[in-house]
Write a sequence for this structure.
């Protein structure tokens, strides 16, 4: 892995360069003054430095944006009053410790439900790792229900959406992306999607469905998305600015792509 430097507030920040088989350069900015560049295999460090310098203002704006970054969304302790999101609204975690001595089998159990502004977990095991896994499973179940509801809604609303027929649509844990689509017409949607507001959920579904028509991010692809979600550009900007709020087990990254 190569490395270059970026000047920021009288410091020289290390910038890691990762080479891959691709045509564009991606600059990633992360909390704690971390910068990473993903570049095509044969691009020289000099060219990468020029691209980085050309986009100095963009990088600075993102680094500055992370100065007041609330990293409580990244450092979860799974305790009362931590903020999680459901359908775009903040919810407060409430753990009800069930110390029922009649539980002779001593099996771990939990019951999770929404109560007002809270996500309430009734459990006999309040170990951090157990609560984390319990929430993961709960979000996946919620996401499966929300996904089917929104697909039905989009099919009723849009003739263009009705024409797109994937083979399989599944919810699965994905650490870095909200969704994916492969050449077998199988679509995977992130198991945390129920954290998002409905407009963002619809956009992610439509984005992946449109990959059935275009397995790329060409102009034709985005025209197909725009037919169904006319304001998709606003939603993309909103997602980039707010992704960190919906972290349960994911690192927040802001990136931008630059064609060579």
């Amino acid at each position: 892995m190569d490395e270059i430097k970026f000047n920021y507030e009288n410091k020289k920040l290390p910038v890691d360069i990762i080479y891959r088989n691709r045509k564009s350069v991606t600059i990633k900015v992360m909390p704690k003054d971390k910068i990473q560049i993903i570049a095509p295999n044969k691009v020289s460090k000099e060219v990468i430095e020029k691209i980085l310098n050309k986009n100095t203002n963009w990088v600075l704006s993102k680094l500055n944006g992370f100065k007041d970054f609330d990293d409580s969304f990244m450092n979860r302790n799974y305790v009362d009053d931590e903020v999680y999101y459901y359908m775009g609204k903040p919810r407060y975690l409430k753990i009800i410790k069930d110390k029922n001595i009649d539980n002779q089998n001593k099996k771990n159990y939990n019951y999770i439900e929404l109560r007002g502004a809270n996500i309430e977990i009734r459990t006999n095991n309040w170990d951090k790792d157990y609560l984390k896994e319990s929430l993961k499973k709960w979000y996946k179940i919620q996401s499966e229900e929300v996904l089917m509801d929104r697909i039905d809604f989009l099919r009723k609303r849009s003739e263009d959406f009705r024409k797109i027929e994937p083979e399989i649509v599944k919810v699965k844990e994905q650490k870095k992306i909200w969704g994916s689509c492969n050449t077998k017409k199988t679509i995977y949607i992130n198991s945390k999607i129920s954290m998002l507001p409905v407009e963002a959920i619809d956009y992610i579904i439509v984005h992946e469905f449109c990959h059935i028509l275009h397995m790329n991010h060409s102009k034709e692809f985005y025209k197909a998305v725009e037919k169904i979600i006319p304001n998709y550009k606003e939603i993309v900007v909103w997602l980039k600015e707010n992704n960190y709020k919906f972290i349960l087990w994911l690192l927040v990254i802001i990136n931008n792509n630059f064609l060579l």
Q: What stands out?
A: Residues 128-157 form the longest helix (30 residues).
